[in-house]
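Course exercise 7: structure representation. Students receive a sequence record and must write out the corresponding structure in token form. The form below is the worked example handed out in class, using ABC transporter ATP-binding protein (311 residues). Read each field label carefully; the graders check that inputs and outputs are placed in the correct fields and that the protein name is recorded exactly as given.

STUDENT ID: A-19
EXERCISE PROTEIN: ABC transporter ATP-binding protein
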Amino acid sequence: MRAQGLTKRFGELVAVDHVNLEVQSRQVYGFLGPNGSGKSTTIRMLCGLLTPSEGEIDVLGLRIPQKAEALRSRIGYMTQKFSLFEDLSVRENLEFMAAVQGVPKTRTPARVSELIEQYHFGDRERQLAGTMSGGQKQRLALACAVIHDPELLFLDEPTSAVDPESRRDFWEKLFELADGGTTLLVSTHLMDEAERCHRLAILNRGVLVADGTPTELAGALAGRTFVVDSGNPRRAQRVLVDLPEVLGVAQVGHALRVLVNDAHGDDALAPLRSALAKVDPQAVMQSVPPNLEDVFVAVTREKRESQERAA
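STUDENT ANSWER:
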């Protein structure tokens, strides 16, 4: 899947701004970004549900949106709302989706039974979807999305309404699909989910601000992240947050996680140590490995600051 210069405008609002993407087969590719960052709009354009204002899209060898109708039988799409028929049973939901997706009638009973076993609904196949838990509905929605063995699966914030254990089980299913040959594009605003992806794009205000593996993106911040242990973390945070060398400060328990603008040696960190000494002489600052949350803060704030300077 490739997109070049992908743009979507709604009147004066630029929801997606000249995004370039390339997703390899058998890959779990993540879209990370806050609500309103353009993730859902991008997905809808990629699967042919929304016509871009500018740009070119090629999905599974098909030009989109011109060939969107031919694409639909080859992709699956799952949203965060779990689009199930709550007054139908598990088996009836699967049978209905098989009919919608054009699964041959001779193949449907075996395929439905296969998914009921694979997604652990053996004792619930007659249960109404509306009476199931959030995690169970999520698994059923995923089973419905793959009833026709799609080559490419789009998942738009699919785990936002379920508990951590259900989310973990759900991701195991996603990797099973990838191992079986399916390519997956997953949008999320959750850092722990983003870290699971093979590759990751970070969107902010419709702009692609980072693209790479989670390890690559975090590695680019080497030398820029620190933890401060202080007896008075709130006061320490107040003196650090306004320093020009500091890009972000977040309290984590009794400590502070500090992100600086550039990689600094000990001498360059003297302003931070000096500021800390005024409020807590016993405070200790040490370097720590960057994580994906640091990456997100860095790329979104640096982009915003550059836009503000340009304005």
